[in-house]
Amino acid sequence: MELLIAIVIGVLFGGGTYLILRPSLIRVVMGLALYSNAANLVMIACGGYSPDRTAPFVNSDTNSISTLMDPLPPDFILTAIVISFAVNALFLTTCYFVYLDHGTDDPGQLPVNKLKVENDFVE
Amino acid sequence: MSDLEHVLPAIVFLPFVVAIFTLLVGRLIGRQAGWLMVLSSVTAFAGSLWLFIHQQVHDRVVPVFTFAWLPDLNIHLNLRADPFGLFFAMLIAGIGVLVGIYSLGYIPRLATGRIGRYYAALIGFMGSMLGIALADDLFLLFVFWEVTSITSFLLIGFWYEQDKARKGALTALQITALGGLAMMAGFVLVGEATGTYQISMLASQEVLRQQLADSPLFMPALLLVFVGAFTKSAQVPFHFWLPNAMVAPTPVSTYLHAATMVKAGVFLIGRMLPIFNQSACWSPILITVGLLTFFVGAYQAFRENDLKGMLARTTISTLGLVMMIYGLNAASQDALQIFNHAAYKGALFLVVGIVEHATHTRDIRNLGGLRKKMPTVFVLCLLSGLSMAGLPPFFGFIAKEALYAELLHNVFLHNRPFLQWFVIGTCVLANAFIFAVSFRLIFGVFLGPLSDKAQDVHPPCAFLWIPPAILAVVTVAVGISSAWPSTQNLMNMLSSEVHAEVHVSLFPSVDHLGPLILSCCTIGIGILIFKARGVVGQAQRQFDLLPAMQTVWDGFLNGVTWFAECFVHHWQNGSMRWYFSAILLFFVGLSILAISYFRLSFDLVPISLSQMPWSGLSLCVLLVITVVTVVVAQTRLGAAIALTATGFLVALIFVVYRSPDILLTQILIESVSTIFILLILFYMPSFKKDRLRPAQKMLNLGISCAVGVTMFIFVLFATSLPFRETENLAGEYLSRAFHGAGGQNAVNVIIVDFRAVDTMGEITVLVVVGLCIFGLLRTRRRMQL
Questions:
Q1: A11: nearest CA in chain B?
Q2: Where are the domains of chain B?
Q3: How far is A64 from chain B (nearest CA, A)?
Q4: In terms of residue numbers, what domain contains A83?
Q5: B172 near B263, Cβ under 8 Å?
Q6: I need a surface site. Which of A37, B147, B594, B748 has the fewest CB within 10 A?
Q7: pTM of the model
Q8: What gap in Å lies between CA B395 and CA B483, rounded to an integer?
Q9: Which of B605-614, B623-632, B689-698 has the weakest average pLDDT?
């Protein structure tokens, strides 16, 4: 399972990167969504996989603890899912307004404020 | 002895206290703040003098003050009062008294609003110079060194409305601070090589010196310290900042740029002499730089028409001379030369200040005939000028004789006759130029017909003429009294060499015939140059010795800003693609570096397909397909649907990992996201054909593959290596969830109990984002209405 999940994570990150690098804000947001899914998979993969373990529901039997999954990765993922949803929603809204203001969602065609180094101490 | 120790920090740190006090009360007491300067310098002078006398009376015991400043870094606040340091301290404090008095007469007519700042900077400067003189720790020395650079910057830029003043101050700061940094690097190397920063220990312990000499850091340390000393003492090729610094008020020029600060570099070399002089490079570098500076300074001084410019360039020249003396290992006469120069040059600067004050010009071509208007000043200028020219019976003559005697008998030069005569010839010529400069000064300003500018000149007030008078008296007194052995003994005592034996005499004897002949040559050539000043000036205008270093430096600074501008333009060009690519490629590079550094090999990865559940395999295949669909989709809707499918498939993978909580969350969130995306897409433009060129697409593909492969490898290692020691941690959480918190679902318990604050933050993020989106939509709708 480790090999499989590693391949899937690699594909998710690769696809996300390709989308992020394309000149379309909507695609960039989709790429970021793929990234967050991939990151969540990294966390769950790091928790380790074993087919003979069960979901982390505890009962009074102390011995059963060793047969349960590690509860920490799902715990972190839970937070990450919600946060990434919020971030994506904000991104999407921003994309929408960028499009409204400039008539394009290509970041390369947006007006750029060129940085200018103030050269006032050498005459 | 315990009393003596505590005098040392008092001498060094009292001025800083007074400086802060001056800054606070400067507005209230106005010009009277000058008395604070006088008071603090008199105190410092008295303290140093007392230490010196005490030392001479009581078996030459050297008082040492130690305070653990940064003991972990082996940096201590060590102060030590050896005779050379005390000599320097007395010089600083003594000239400080005179400059303080002079400022009382000079400054009030110029500015009222900034008197407090002026005196605060001046007193702070004095304190840091005293610190340099008495510091016995390389880092302490460096700190004081930098404070002198900063206060010098503030004082040169006193007339900050003027372009020239700002530029001069900035150039001085740039050069001296750069040199200071180089010097610090040199100090660090010395500390690394020997394990101590204590100067006296480095100088006295043979073991440490040998350890340093054997270290490969020896040469770099030496060169870096040289850079620090050369920048501070305005040696070629860093000499150009000193003439530019002459925009400062004249008391500042006197104090900083003639009598004390520029001598800090020379002083540093004197301090480093016992540590470094075993190097084969010591003599060649110092003699070359010193001799070159000596001659170039004198040569350029004669060309100058600005009075302070003339004096600044002769100062550069004399500093070169002292550097050369150290290069010749003739440290026994360093105090003599330094004292001599401070005395006559200080007086001349103050005289020039009086002249400028009265006539509002410093250009020698507009001056003349002031002898009749201010006879006192004329006499002072004559005494100091003749000392600078090196005529008997003045101090300058003694110093010049000592120099020639050293050149004739020096051990280093004795084995190299050709070099010896070259050095002697150059020195005679340079001294002749200085002779001519001093005559030009005396004749040009005070003799000849009265110039237009000098018609309504009034004699200076007592504050202005008393300080140069004291210096002139010193010049004459030392010159005449040098016939007595006790004066010579005093000079020898003050020098940085412990057993100095310099014999100079005002009256020629058979032993001193050689120096006397050279002196006569100097005077003869000097008179010739002065007589032929029209021709020489013409020639000098035609033939410049060095390229204008100021232009070179400005060019360098322009180059730096040009480079920075280009770099910023290309690096931060506003392209999101470029930023992402840079970040991702850096990550990939870093991962490759980490893998090769830790020598991770794939043998560590147990690739077992046996444990693989069929459900997992099918999910993974589907997931890959949907991801590819998202990437290649030509329509918005197709991409959105594929993205949603990806999310749900990820949720199903969570099932494989037995995590029902995140399964539920993922499904819920994915549903909401889908609705949101579809909503937004309704308003957004449809996917257009990429405007990217095929090459760019290939590049993107390459970066994507690199990132994907890196992450693949990362996960392989992360899941396979024995990184996972969470068994105990997981067990702990599980049992506490049940027994401690009383919950059965461990994940939920952790979220709401153990990580409650995290969850609170997460909810806050959601609320803030919701408010943001709501606000955006609302304002937009209002604008549209």
A1: B708
A2: 1-279, 331-542, 610-683, 755-785
A3: 10
A4: 2-53+64-108
A5: no
A6: B594
A7: 0.75
A8: 11
A9: B605-614
